[in-house]
Amino acid sequence: MLIKQYVPKFCIGFSYGLSFPLTLVILDFWLKDAGLSNAAIGMFSLFHWPFTFKFIWGVFIENYDIPYLTKRIGRNRSWIIASHLVLMIGVIGMAYSDPGSSLPKLILFASLTALGDGCKGVVLYPYQIDGTTKNQLGYLASVVSFGHRIGMILIKVSTLHLAYFFSWKTAYLFSAFSICLLMIAVLFMESPEENAHSPNDKSIILFLADSFRKSLATQLKKLINRKEGLCILCVLTLYKSADFMMQKMTRLFLIEIGFSKVEIANTVQFWGSISVIIGGLISGYCIKKMGILNAMIYFGLLHAISFSSYMLLVKIGAISWSLWFITFCEAFTGGCVTTAFLSFLYTICKTGSLYAFLWALHDLGGMFFMGVSGALVDKIGWSSYFTLIPSAYVIILMILRIFLCKYRPLEESCCRWMQIT
Length: 421
Hints:
Layout: H1 2-19, H2 25-33, H3 38-44, H4 49-52, H5 54-63, H6 69-73, H7 75-95, H8 103-129, H9 137-165, H10 168-187, H11 204-225, H12 229-238, H13 241-256, H14 261-290, H15 292-307, H16 310-316, H17 320-346, H18 352-406, H19 410-418
Helix pairs in contact: 1-8, 1-9, 1-10, 2-13, 3-18, 5-8, 5-11, 5-18, 7-8, 7-10, 8-18, 9-10, 9-14, 9-17, 11-18, 12-18, 13-18, 14-15, 14-17, 15-17, 15-18
């Protein structure tokens, strides 16, 4: 029974992990290989905007049928095919681009990849929470995170190795092929109940307005009108800000001090992903025992401490054993933080569009922090950077703690609002 329940959740997480790094993590290595500056690579994160604004596409996905295809296989499956096709076109286009000679072309196809990835995230959200109870939220987040990290292991390690031994073109073509295979697997999953909303005799303008109201505006208004609504928005925007800045720049830092792409693939991408999985699975049990918000704070403090360990590499340089140790500390606590954050998000979102909108706030904060991270490093240097970011994260967690004390019943009220038993 548990296998039947959680294997589809694992596959959904795997799907997320397989495509998300292509426009951020892997692309950063490619741009660094092409000789772009840290500041330019940081600003490149802004072109991930189609993924961030997926709540707009979510309104269409939840309410519109794809002609012919929806009648044959249903709305969910038809949008799964459409989003994956857009995603694959974008990835193949990136494969045939060059940061040195055709940067605008690369930006265009990277944005198309982000669009397809965002649409896929919206259409798969109902698959995540279908049939979940309150006591299972931590385990659900653990399983989805587990699948996400396994997908990231495959795509990051394989693309870095293929880029090292062959070319970036080969690496991205392999990614497109992997996405195609996964699309076929996802289509065989049992589809959740679908929204029967349809245009009927309404004009297209009225139907657009009604779709936006039903899928997003009504739910968002209810959330904002809650007394803890501001608290929720602050948590979503700021909670992982330091994590975004560290992940964006540490990859470039490792290259600058002398680690090769293969060393980074083997240690950071593979061993780091294994460590994240371990942290994510353990945190699922901890969340059930201590509660989601307490887990977010304690895991966040441990994660902030792990950031400071990069000062060791600043002092001693590119030594393999230290990278293995630092990677484990950061990745293990990062897995705990991500699982706790995802559990929190599950207690808030009733619809895929609301989930996409709140995730957009999370991503907008991430895009901003990643966008300025490169310029900040160039301004203050690596040593000051690895001191400043953990300190800022602790301050954010202190603010979150104040909100937690003020809105003690937040977690229970969220679950009641979501009608999670």
